[in-house]
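Lab notebook page, bench 4
Experiment: in silico fold of construct C2
Operator: M.H.
Input chain length: 324 residues
Purpose: comparison with the prior construct
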Amino acid sequence: MIPTPVYAENGSSMEITTKWYSEIVSDMLAKGVISDTAGLEEPLTRGNMADILIATDKFSGSRYAVNPFSDLSTRDKEYDNIIRLYNSHVFVGSVDQNGDLVAQANGLLTREQAAAFIVRAFNLEGTTENLICKFKDKQDISEYALENILICEKLNLISGYEDGTFKPQNNISKIEFLTILNKVFEYGLDSNVNIQNLETTFYDKYKSSAVVLNADLDIKKFKLNLEFENKSDFVYSYGIEFQIEKLEEGKWIVVPFEKRKDIDDPAFLINPNAKKTDTVFLEDYYNELDNGTYRIVYALDKEIYSIRKTFCDVEFCAAEFEIL
């Protein structure tokens, strides 16, 4: 087999045949994970990492959750991919000094963060009860990252330096992250991801007990008249993003949008013990829908002392409707 040529980043015709990573880059180009060789040896940002993971086609295509990140706007080029990873419980963000959940899309990815993303992305969680951290600088590893690093080391996805250290706080380069990803593919660990399950179990796992959603279909105008009823003493909010699912053989299956409206994603408040109405024009998203039972699903953000909550605390509400 003739290998895919890998060219230098300066656009010259010289092939990078002397680089240790030339075969890895060829494989990543062939898989469509990367489209060029730009910045291979440069530090990787969290936003660029999200682009790489999404390019593997292993994750949820949905971005209907309320945007939980105070530093991420729908205008940001990283928005779609970060929200898709957030929906897949991969990109969870961190809490800043003001108590806000932030994505830090332009922040540089550290080696310990990379291990955490890989473990979450490919469902590699497992017992670390009998694993011992042998790195000399283990005291520098953040508590949240230790288990992830042990898992990645056990699976031979990462290794330390010749001096016995791991340097967890060092920035990881694009090619170093691609090298880990290449091992995931090589070892078949990417098969742990089930897109269908990720996309269809949000509502069933995190159903809100506080907010009830009702939907009335106006078939002539192909629109849904919605009513959100907040039965709690907390303020909830939701965005314009939602998901339509169809009941097929006892399972709810995502119905991908055929069209998408390019508009901002504001947050709409549902006050305590109050109702809010809204309207969704289905023709903005679909040419038509076959007969059957459907439901519309929204993500809800619960306001607790103005502190943003992580994905696991986001709740979902849904309402069924019939097309006959």
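Observations: The longest strand covers residues 292-303. Confidence is low (pLDDT under 50) at residues 1-6, 8-14, 194-201, 305-312.
Next step: discuss at group meeting.
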